[in-house]
Amino acid sequence: MEDTLTERSINVKFRSSNGDAFDMCFDPGQLTVQQLKERLVTQISIPADNMRLVYSGRVLKDEDMVDLYGVKEGHTIHVVRGAANRAAEQAANVTPTTSTQRNVNGTATNPFGINHFGTSLEQDMRNMMNSPVIRQLLSNPEIVRSMVMQNPTMRQMIERNPEIGHIINDPSFIRQTMDMARNPELMREMMRNNDRALANLETIPGGFNHLRRMYHTLQEPLESAGRHNDQSSEAANQRLAQLLNVERPPEGRINNVPLPNPWTPRNSATIANASNPFGISPYSMMGFPPTQLSFSPSPAASRNAPTTQAPTQSTTGTPSTGTSTTNSSTTGSSNSTTSSNMPAPSFMLPTNAQNISTPNDPEFIRRFQQLMQRYMTSPQLVSSRQQMPQYYPASFFGSPNPFFTPSLSATQTPVSTQPSEPPETRFRTQLQTLEEMGFVDQAANIRALLATGGDVNSAIEFLLAHRS
Amino acid sequence: MAKVPRNFRLLEELEKGEKGIGDGTCSYGLSNGDDIYMSDWNGTIIGPGHTVHENRIYSLKLHCDENYPDSPPTVHFLSRINLPCVNQQTGKVEPSKLNCLASWKRNYTLETVLTELRREMSNPHNKKLPQPPEGSFF
């Protein structure tokens, strides 16, 4: 430090928000706030760009001299971590990402700093997404779209299902998917919302029937579009139903069969995909699964690539036992496609076997329920819940961005209508109807409506049955 | 108990603010060090974690009139903030909507007001309210 301690130097306490405190001696007439921050960096683990100094109810400005604020001997300045300066953020964007140091294999470092192997896939994904080249690339929905269309599997899927094409054509959907892939916080938040709403859904008797109907109207076409060779989805579906002991409930009666528990232990590798309603990871959506991304056909990349298949193959390809009868023909074939495409220098890698779920995979059921839940939390649809089968396909695909808009807005205002509303408000209209019909006991009415998932007719039956 | 006169009371608070006694989440001091009446104060609130306010610092202006501490100070937000108790046109904290101002007691301090405002930010009803961009002012 070139500035010597003059007679005007004072001793000032610094306190950080995590409770650390230390003293520092400096001359407030000689230092700007910026310089002071640079000296503090040695004491505290906050970069100078993120550091905010607060004294006497004022935030110290970088360009001001410290004595402007009248700091005196023995006084305390609070050190707070704030958001990074805009300028600093831009600078960070220009500097290349530095994840190459974690290149576990010691293979040639590739220009994008992307790790082909490694357990911290999420970290890699984030690094990749934050790299300036990718950012720029993905900020253009048109490019993303053409990337998706390059993938033959995706193209076929879109041709078969115009609804999916509609989604792909929506630039805001693409942007949101990218945001989600970039921001693990957002992803986690969405997953958390899903779980909570799902827990609520499960408590409604007959909820599983809704799930089943949803499967028929939506998830099944999507899934079978992904597995274009497999025609046996109906049979597989039946198997799933048998597996879960679900019988078709008698029409017009209340389903009081307890719901099966789909939360059997699951593969942690697929967590990153969990909030994706397509049952396809966002990466493979775009045409490049994370482990197989190769922008430049560098020798190291193509040499590594086939081996990355090995673990996947061994997990999904194992002869199944007990409950999980994996559709090995599908996974096998998709694996071979991926490996053969591997050295190609563009984004042509279609289906990561892991991401294509068979209907009797617990992971698949879970995703499917999340899909369902996304629909359920969409505020404008809550009111039409009991007419779900009719409303469902139209409204689902009718809104410009059906999958992501509801839950994204929910991350900002998570007062999601369905889970938090008390039954009195949720069933207001139904309660009124029942009251007009002469069922005056409101508590009983609510109980009946809860038991029947808001269906007035079934609720009346329920009330009559339980009256005696 | 003896009634502490206004100026002694404010000097006490000034010292506490400058020395940073407290939990460190709120800071306050005179906006003009030469003001012998100690009427105008600056305050900052460090946004509570796990809310939309995280990593934000809110600046406020507090005014203690001659009746302080018998009557509450008037409080204005300088940084824009979306809270039910803050007037969105002026930034004024509506005394009727903030409990400690509405039922003011003599032993309340400026710090009481700031901590209560901070608690208001982390209130489950408010902590996810959409907020104006950081760095905008009333």
TrEMBL record, chain A:
Q: Which CDD domains match?
A: UBA_PLICs, Ubl_Dsk2p_like
Might you report a single GO cellular component term? cytosol
Q: Which domain of life is it from?
A: Eukaryota
Query: UBA domain location, by residue?
Result: 421-466
InterPro entries tied to this protein: STI1_HS-bd, UBA, UBA-like_sf, Ubiquilin, Ubiquitin-like_dom, Ubiquitin-like_domsf
Q: Which residues form the Ubiquitin-like domain?
A: 32-80
- Biased segments, Low complexity type: 304-340
The entry lists its GO molecular-function terms as: polyubiquitin modification-dependent protein binding
Region annotation (Disordered) ranges: 294-357
Gene Ontology terms describing biological process: ubiquitin-dependent protein catabolic process
Q: Which SMART domains match?
A: STI1, UBA, UBQ
A Pfam family name for this chain? UBA
Checking PANTHER family in the record gives: FI07626P-RELATED, UBIQUILIN
The name this protein carries in UniProt is Ubiquilin
Automatic annotation (TrEMBL), chain B:
InterPro entries per record? UBC, UBQ-conjugating_enzyme/RWD
Its keywords, alphabetically, are: Ubl conjugation pathway
Cite the UBC core domain residue spans from the record: 5-138
Q: Which CDD domains match?
A: UEV_UBE2V
Q: Which Gene3D superfamilies match?
A: Ubiquitin Conjugating Enzyme
User: What Pfam families does this protein's entry cite?
Assistant: UQ_con
Name the domain of life this protein comes from: Eukaryota
Q: What are the start and end residues of every segment in region (Disordered)?
A: 119-138
What is this protein's name? UBC-like protein
Organism field? Gigaspora rosea
